[in-house]
Amino acid sequence: MKTVNEILLDLVAIPSVSPADNRPVIEYITSCLDPEHWNVNIHPHRDQAGTAKTNLVAVTRNASGADVELAFVCHTDTVPFDPQWDEAVHPAERDGRIYGRGSCDVKGFLACILAVLQQVDSASLSKPIALVFTADEEVGCIGAKRLAATHAFTTRYMIIGEPTSMQPVRAGKGYSLATIVVKGREGHSAFPSDGHSAIYDAARVVAALEQIARTVETARNEDFAPPYTTLNVGLISGGTAKNIVPGECRITVEWRPIPGQDPDWVARLIRDALAGLHQAVSGFDSEFTVLRNDPAFAPSGTAELVTWLSSLTGNPPGTISFGSEAAHLSPLAGEIVVLGPGSMSVAHQTGEYVPVQQLLECVSLIENAIGRYCVLKQRNEL
């Protein structure tokens, strides 16, 4: 049997950035699942670029119950990495940490699941366990959305792996993304009145977006840090040359709504602001397109799992300000908790790592969760 460290080193060595086919990771996972003990269902599809992608749902065969009691969910893709970072796919273990792309987000949690599976005695299970491995979480939770749309499985309890430093998370912000294309009229820069500057108008749009950001901060939820919906202008591009009045400028804006907030509120504020600029500025023209509008992850109707995990880890239930698959998979589960080793503060960057001690804590937690919710003799003793 391999240790969790060895499994993680194997996984990080498999490149699995979102634009690529994730089947090599799925094949590694499948090799760890004994077909005598697991019903393995493959859900293939192709992304918008035509690249093959795979979701995997595996359920234990020999449990006496018909309904899945506990599901572990983990995505298989990672964000891209600097090709100069050699450890990205040649992982290293040093100073109590494992370095490499995905070591923290979120192959560390995946390695913990696979390490525990080596010791699961399916004959002792009173309730089935489901393992769910998804594609393209990093580019819009695409795999999770497809599984939810087809109602691929249901479970009473669900633990979704994300780097939370082993804090059980009961709620999270949503994620929305949009583009604003400001349209002007090109002209020679020596005669600016013959054109209409899209960049000047884009500056007006950015100022309006900054005011909208201040507006949405007034609706607060103190469970989060920061305790309000955040808005960010992340990209601006426009113009063709220094001596040409720019005819177009593109703005990319994102916002992360708190639970309970109307998911269309910010979009309406932006549309209203653009309409106001159209009335106030002669020649103003723009096109607003919402690319993503993922809902927030609201607390589940019950808190049995999150309370127990909190007592087990010694960490109080918390919230996250980054996106996860929880909101999309919530129709498939009675209660969802997001949890895993590592911190998002070191994910998505060169030098990403996960502490080995947290990997060991996560292995113990998964073992305890299976024992509490799915093992016959322990359930009878409770």
Characteristics:
Aminopeptidase, 4-stranded antiparallel beta sheet, 2 domains, Alpha-Beta Plaits, alpha/beta, elongated, 382 residues, 10 helices
Residue-averaged pLDDT: 95
In CATH terms, what is the architecture of the largest domain?
3-Layer(aba) Sandwich
Which homologous superfamily in CATH is the superfamily of the largest domain? Zn peptidases
* Number of helical regions: 10
Helical/strand content category: alpha/beta
Order of helices and strands: HHEEEEEHEHEEEEHEEEHEHEHEEHH
CATH topology of the largest domain: Aminopeptidase
pLDDT < 50 stretches: 378-382
The major sheet is characterized as:
6 strands, mixed
Please give the share of residues in helix: 25-40%
Strand arrangement, major sheet: 1-2-6-3-7-16
Cα shape:
elongated
Strand fraction? 25-35%
- CATH class designation of the largest domain: Alpha Beta
Separation of termini? 30 Å
